[in-house]
Amino acid sequence: MSDALDRDLLILLHDVARALRTRFDQKARASHAMTRAQWIILSRLDRQPGISQNEMAAICEVEPITVARLVDRLEARGLVERRADPSDRRIRRLHLLPAARPILETIANAREFMGARITAGLDAKTRETLIDGLLIIKENLANEAASAPALAEA
Length: 154
Hints:
Largest sheet: 2 strands, antiparallel
Number of helices: 7
Structural class: mainly alpha
Number of strands: 2
């Protein structure tokens, strides 16, 4: 029975995701006395400068007030600033400040290091197959979520 659970895809995905979150939480605390959630916000802003707090909340799958509190802390450290949206004064756009650069480098290094560690022992073909499989799973979940309201109405 234990072997069957050890090879259960859903349990494995959950366990791996939890372990990764734990490791990145530890690294964020140790390197810059930050949280993984703050690292996520910085990383997202690096890729998508100027997104709104509400857009960030949707990406992070948390309530807007949670993002607001996280951004408050990042803003107090001089890493992020809120700017008014030129076309809608109710919207605050988020932007990185130069002081965030060294932390983004730490994040990139941590991702590279962790990626190498967790894929040690996997050849390049196996890694690519794993990535392809996870992308299919991600797409299937997105499609299921998109069709869920239609299924609920049926």
